[in-house]
Amino acid sequence: MKIAVIGAGAMGLRYGVLLQEAGNDVDFVELWKPSYQAIREQSGVYVSRDHKNRHLVPVDIFLPEEYTKIPDLVILFTKQMQSGAAMQACRHFIGEHTYVLTNQNGIGSVDEIRNYVPDQQIIAGIALIATVLNAPGDVDFMGAKGAAHTQLVNVTEKPDTFTHEVVREFEKAGMNPTLQTNYMGTLWSKLLMNSVINTLCTLMDITMGEYVAYSGADDLSSRLIDEGYAAGLADGVNFMQSREEMLQIIDHESSQVNPLHHPSMYQDMVNSRPTEVDYINGYIVKTAKKHGLEAKNHEMLVDLLHLAESAKQLNL
Ligand SMILES: NC(=O)C1=CN([C@@H]2O[C@H](COP(=O)(O)OP(=O)(O)OC[C@H]3O[C@@H](n4cnc5c(N)ncnc54)[C@H](OP(=O)(O)O)[C@@H]3O)[C@@H](O)[C@H]2O)C=CC1
Ligand SMILES: CC(C)(CO)C(=O)C(=O)O
C-alpha cells in the first residue's frame, strides 16, 4: 500500500515506521521544518524502545510542496490545531480514491478532513499507544513490542474492502487493530480517557502511574467520566463501555500499560507549546452546552490548563 504520513512527530513516526517495516511504501510529509531538516540530514529517523536500542531507520521525508505522488492512504498525525493547515497544504496529493485516516486524540480533525474527501474515504479511530519525541527525528516507542492497540472506525460506520486492507496492514505492523462500527462511541471512549489522564497528569506534573496510585484517583476520574458521559449521551453517543468500565480502562492503562508515561499533553506543556485541551475537555464542555447541560469540572480543567500554558509563556 502506498502511504503518506502527514506529520513526522511522535505518533506519525511510530505508525509510519511500523507500516514501512510491514512492507508498505511509506513517505512522510512534514510541515514542521526542524523535523524535516533533521530527518533529511540523518537520512532517517532514530528509533528507540523504552529508551533502549536507539538505531537509525531510513525513511523518506518531503515538504508538502515537494510531494507529488498520489497515495492510497494518507495518515494525519499532527496535533489537532494543526490539522486544518496540514490538510490545506497537502490537498494536492489527495487523489480521487485516496483515503484519509486519523487516530489523533480529541475530536475535531474529521471536520477538517471532510473539506477534502468524502465521508466514505475517512477512517477515524483511536491509538492506545504511548510515544515520545525526544527531539526532531528521534522517537521513543514506549511499551513492549506488540503491546500497542488501535481501533479503526469508518466515519460512515460501513467498513469497505479498502478499510479491511488497512486493518490487515495494521495487523502485519503489530498495531493490534480492532475494526469498530460505532464512530462516535469509539472516539468518545478515548476522549474520556484523555480528559482525565492527559489533563490531570499535565496539571499535576505526574506520570499515569503516579496518578492512579493516588487513593482519591477513582473518585476524581469518576466525576469527570460522569460529566463527560452525560454530555455524550445528550449528543446521541452510543457508548461502548459503561462508566465503571471506563474507569477500569483508565486504571488499567495507567497502572499496567503505561505507568511511567507522561501523556502527550504533558510533553506539549514542558516544551511550552499549546496543548490539545480545547479538543478534549473543551469538546466535552462545548457538547454539554449545546444540550443545555453544564460540565463544570471539565470547564475548570480547561481554564487551569490555559492558565498553566500562559504561565509557561511568561516564564520563557
Ligand atoms: N504521543 C502519544 O503518546 C500519543 C499522541 N496521540 C495524538 O497524536 C497526535 C500527534 O501527537 P504527537 O505525535 O504526540 O505530537 P508530535 O510529536 O507530532 O508533536 C510535534 C509537534 O509539536 C511541535 N514542536 C515544536 N517543537 C517541538 C519539539 N522540540 N519537540 C517536539 N515537537 C515540537 C511541532 O509543531 P509546530 O510546527 O507547531 O511547532 C510538531 O509538529 C495528537 O493528536 C496526540 O494527541 C495519540 C495517542 C498517543
Ligand atoms: C495516555 C495515552 C498514551 C493513551 O494511550 C495518550 O493518548 C497520550 O499520551 O496522549
TrEMBL record:
<feature type="domain" description="Ketopantoate reductase N-terminal">
    <location>
        <begin position="3"/>
        <end position="147"/>
    </location>
</feature>
<dbReference type="InterPro" id="IPR003710">
    <property type="entry name" value="ApbA"/>
</dbReference>
<dbReference type="GO" id="GO:0005737">
    <property type="term" value="C:cytoplasm"/>
</dbReference>
<dbReference type="GO" id="GO:0015940">
    <property type="term" value="P:pantothenate biosynthetic process"/>
</dbReference>
<dbReference type="InterPro" id="IPR036291">
    <property type="entry name" value="NAD(P)-bd_dom_sf"/>
</dbReference>
<dbReference type="GO" id="GO:0050661">
    <property type="term" value="F:NADP binding"/>
</dbReference>
<dbReference type="Pfam" id="PF02558">
    <property type="entry name" value="ApbA"/>
</dbReference>
<keyword id="KW-0521">NADP</keyword>
<dbReference type="InterPro" id="IPR013328">
    <property type="entry name" value="6PGD_dom2"/>
</dbReference>
<dbReference type="InterPro" id="IPR013752">
    <property type="entry name" value="KPA_reductase"/>
</dbReference>
<dbReference type="Pfam" id="PF08546">
    <property type="entry name" value="ApbA_C"/>
</dbReference>
<keyword id="KW-0560">Oxidoreductase</keyword>
<protein>
    <recommendedName>
        <fullName>2-dehydropantoate 2-reductase</fullName>
        <ecNumber>1.1.1.169</ecNumber>
    </recommendedName>
</protein>
<comment type="pathway">
    <text>Cofactor biosynthesis; (R)-pantothenate biosynthesis; (R)-pantoate from 3-methyl-2-oxobutanoate: step 2/2.</text>
</comment>
<feature type="domain" description="Ketopantoate reductase C-terminal">
    <location>
        <begin position="182"/>
        <end position="308"/>
    </location>
</feature>
<keyword id="KW-0566">Pantothenate biosynthesis</keyword>
<dbReference type="InterPro" id="IPR050838">
    <property type="entry name" value="Ketopantoate_reductase"/>
</dbReference>
<dbReference type="GO" id="GO:0008677">
    <property type="term" value="F:2-dehydropantoate 2-reductase activity"/>
</dbReference>
<comment type="similarity">
    <text>Belongs to the ketopantoate reductase family.</text>
</comment>
<dbReference type="InterPro" id="IPR008927">
    <property type="entry name" value="6-PGluconate_DH-like_C_sf"/>
</dbReference>
<comment type="function">
    <text>Catalyzes the NADPH-dependent reduction of ketopantoate into pantoic acid.</text>
</comment>
<dbReference type="InterPro" id="IPR013332">
    <property type="entry name" value="KPR_N"/>
</dbReference>
